[in-house]
TrEMBL record:
Residue runs in coiled coils: none
GO MF entry, a single one: rRNA binding
Listed Pfam families: S4 (PF01479)
Record-linked CDD domains: S4
Family per record: Belongs to the RqcP family.
Keyword rRNA processing: no
Protein name, per record: RQC P-site tRNA stabilizing factor
Keywords: Protein biosynthesis, RNA-binding, rRNA-binding, tRNA-binding
Subunit-structure text: Associates with stalled 50S ribosomal subunits. Binds to RqcH, 23S rRNA and the P-site tRNA. Does not require RqcH for association with 50S subunits.
Role description: Key component of the ribosome quality control system (RQC), a ribosome-associated complex that mediates the extraction of incompletely synthesized nascent chains from stalled ribosomes and their subsequent degradation. RqcH recruits Ala-charged tRNA, and with RqcP directs the elongation of stalled nascent chains on 50S ribosomal subunits, leading to non-templated C-terminal alanine extensions (Ala tail). The Ala tail promotes nascent chain degradation. RqcP is associated with the translocation-like movement of the peptidyl-tRNA from the A-site into the P-site.
Stored SMART domains: S4
Domain RNA-binding S4: 1-64
SUPFAM superfamilies in alphabetical order: Alpha-L RNA-binding motif
Length: 88
């Protein structure tokens, strides 16, 4: 499954266009390598996503084409969530 579709279906990022923008800006790494929106993801991959002030590390546990809202979190396991302090 494409990275941008996985992010949308798993509801990590709400819209696929936003998921595409985030990944194409180099803010997502899969297994330590920078990923684009078209990168294929598979079960067992570890992903790091840099949001504005938060970094999320997760492992992909399951891939499905469609899911219900309450089942979306079964698709991944959060390994680490780090808040980044902004200096003004």
């Amino acid at each position: 499954m494409r990275l941008d579709k996985f992010l949308k279906v798993s509801r990590i990022i709400k819209r696929r266009t936003i998921a595409k923008e985030v990944s194409d800006k180099g803010r997502i790494a899969i297994n330590g390598k920078q990923a684009k929106s078209s990168t294929d993801v598979k079960v067992g991959d570890e992903m790091t996503i840099q949001f504005g002030n938060k970094t999320l590390e997760l492992r992909i546990d399951k891939i499905v084409d469609t899911t219900k809202k309450d089942e979306a979190q079964e698709m991944y396991t959060i390994l680490k969530e780090t808040m980044v302090d902004t200096i003004e």
